[in-house]
Amino acid sequence: MAASGGPDFDFVKNIVRDKLIDILESVPGKKDLVIDPRLMKPLDHIAGAAFLKEHGVDKIFKLDYEKITLGCDKRIYLLRPRMVLTKYVADCILDEFEFEIIPIDKDLLSMELPEFFNDFFL
After folding, report:
1. Considering its fold, how many domains does the chain have in total?
2. What is the pLDDT of residues 1-11, one digit of tens each?
3. What is the pTM assigned to this prediction?
4. What domain range is 16 assigned to?
5. Which residues neighbour 59 within 8 Å (Cβ) at sequence distance 6 or greater?
6. Which CATH number characterizes residue 46's domain?
């Protein structure tokens, strides 16, 4: 119970903070965090800028629909589950590189996707 006699929800804050740590640390090294403007205040209640920097966030950007934000080559987007927001992020992806078969030497291939061999050779 909280000091005022009401419920104490610190445990919820700790659970949410731990989940955020898992997400941030799943991307090694420095990364940028791009946040939906409507999530900035709620995020500040569970994790301030110092906390985010502690877990590898280099710069924090507000999601801007007018321009693509430049920063680190690694970026984590924190959005509300809205189609228009996910479409915006998908539109920011300029290209993709598929790591299916990579020639390592003249007679040696690396199959980077575990399911590739089963799908194409068995």
Report:
1. 1
2. 556 677 777 78
3. 0.66
4. 9-80
5. 32, 33, 71, 72
6. 3.40.50.2060
